[in-house]
Input
Amino acid sequence: MGGELLKIENLKVYYFMLTGTVKAVDNVNLRIGKGEIVALVGESGCGKSTLAYSILRMVPYPGRIVSGRILFDGLDLTKLSEEEMRRLRWREISMIFQGAMNSLNPVMKIRDQLIEALIYHDAIDDIKQGYDLSAKMLKLVGLDPDRILDSYPHELSGGMKQRVVIAMSLLLNPKLIIADEPTTALDVTTQAGILELMRDLHIKTGSSMLLITHDLPVVAEIADRVYVMYAGKIVEYADIYTIFESPAHPYTGGLINAVPSLREGKLRKIKAIAGEPPNLINPPSGCRFHPRCEHAMDICSREEPPMVKLDEGHGVACWLYAKR
Output
């Protein structure tokens, strides 16, 4: 690794609704090294996508970054003007949005959509240069430019459209790619192909990646390190091997146990996590996971656990490990 690329410090992002304040991201810390793939995992609605939108300063109304810092290559993104962020988006940080294959304009040919992105960011001098660069990116993601460039989105399969979106995210050679559920709505075979592609592109381009997903098998395939998020908070972080072999937080263990696994010739019995994620307008006191935790103690409902460092690169926010 070549040092730190992204460092998020004590970030709070709230949605100010008529019914109350949704604390979607609540005092989150996260870092990504240069050339590293970091996964952010958790159930739907835990704040993963909001964190991603925060990095790009694209939190939808009525959401707002309340406090904290987002340091990208030493630059605090929360302090930049909208014009400064516009120049940085896609050129330095790009994003593959959730359901991205359905985000292509249905009435524009693929070539026009790719070239339009280049023109918007002043990345080309003429249309031919844009055409050549678009063709190069499509080849990089395993597509035939002669067929794809003159096609409309409806003429492509789901996997092809997802590859086009990935090519678009790479057009300006960004330092960081944020992939929000990149394999959602794809069949298993196509998912495997997309994951293999993203891993290969990571090696070829050297870009860092933040992979946002609820799918642990996806994480096992591609990530270097993992952050586990629950109800707006990071509850555990570690390298990929530690997370799967020695999970510390009960929620992390619950996520792993909820996924089928065949080890030593035996199929592990699936065990669901009891209960439901909390309402983030009025989250539980103390540890937000305590109403669903089979290891909960009295202190868990009264006080929020601190992040405890268990080992180098492994931390957990749980009273099972914290000093009381």
Summary: Residues 29 and 224 are 17 Å apart (CA to CA). The chain has a mean pLDDT of 91. The chain is about 30% helix and 25% strand. The chain has two domains: 4-92+176-189+204-275+306-315, 101-173.
